[in-house]
Design goal:
Length: 260
């Protein structure tokens, strides 16, 4: 069985600095990812779609919900007028991954996704970061909410892993961490280290309890702490030596299909 853990924004330099062996596994390195021509950096929608389909996807944006498009500008204005206790922020609806039209390896009969982009992703952290960007919640509240959401999503993945581990050929689980934390708390390395430690523990639990034949950890990009933008290479690690070693994020598609 193949298990894939997608960690959005996991930075290879920080994995090395924090010396997180559970994330490094037996083999790890940087991988080439598509660069969005307008943003001039990797963009999660395009990179993860490329990973899932095995071919470079066209640049696309996250999809704001219709409710968000209509009501968000008004709610931001009302928030400046009305007291916080009215709970205006609860009515904000945030963005999510768009629908994917191409076939992916998840679509195969005996494969499954857990919190995966384009499929069953829980976008609660998007909502939190959007509230912060709109000055509806402060940094301390944002950190508490994002950390609690991560804990809940890790717990969900751990529970699902126990239910599905012996029933599928490929399992793909995903978290939009640590990307969201790095964009907001880039000045506080201790906050970031704490999040990386939680992700490292999740990796350890997958190795120990799921015990996949092949365990891949994939990231769509890292984080450049000088420019505050995405770094231009992704990350991978494997519990086994891969031959040939992947060079591009689309290489994993064939690897997944051919692995025995």
């Amino acid at each position: 069985m193949i298990y894939i853990l997608g960690l959005d924004g996991l930075d290879i330099n920080l994995v090395n600095i924090f010396n997180l062996t559970n994330l490094k596994q037996n083999e790890y390195g940087g991988i080439k990812v598509p660069i969005n021509p307008k943003k001039r950096e990797p963009h999660s929608v395009q990179v993860w779609e490329s990973f899932l389909t095995g071919k470079i996807a066209k640049p696309r944006e996250f999809n704001p919900s219709l409710k968000f498009k209509i009501f968000h500008p008004l709610l931001v204005k009302l928030k400046k007028i009305l007291p916080y206790k009215f709970g205006i922020s609860q009515y904000l609806k945030d963005t999510n991954f768009p629908k994917i039209k191409e076939k992916t390896f998840i679509d195969n009969k005996n494969n499954i996704s857990i919190n995966a982009p384009f499929y069953n992703f829980n976008n609660e952290d998007f909502k939190i970061t959007q509230q912060f960007a709109s000055n509806l919640i402060d940094r301390k509240t944002t950190l508490n909410l994002l950390t609690n959401t991560l804990d809940e999503q890790i717990n969900y993945i751990n529970i699902e892993n126990k239910n599905v581990k012996n029933n599928y050929d490929v399992i793909f689980s995903y978290l939009h961490y640590p990307d969201n934390i790095q964009h907001i708390f880039f000045k506080d390395i201790n906050i970031i280290k704490n999040i990386y430690s939680k992700l490292s523990e999740l990796s350890h639990n997958i190795s120990k309890y799921v015990r996949p034949d092949l365990f891949l950890i994939i990231s769509d990009h890292g984080f450049n702490f000088k420019t505050l933008k995405h770094s231009k290479k992704g990350f991978y690690s494997s519990n086994r030596k891969l031959n040939p070693k992947p060079n591009n994020i689309i290489d994993f598609y064939q690897l997944i299909y051919s692995y025995k």
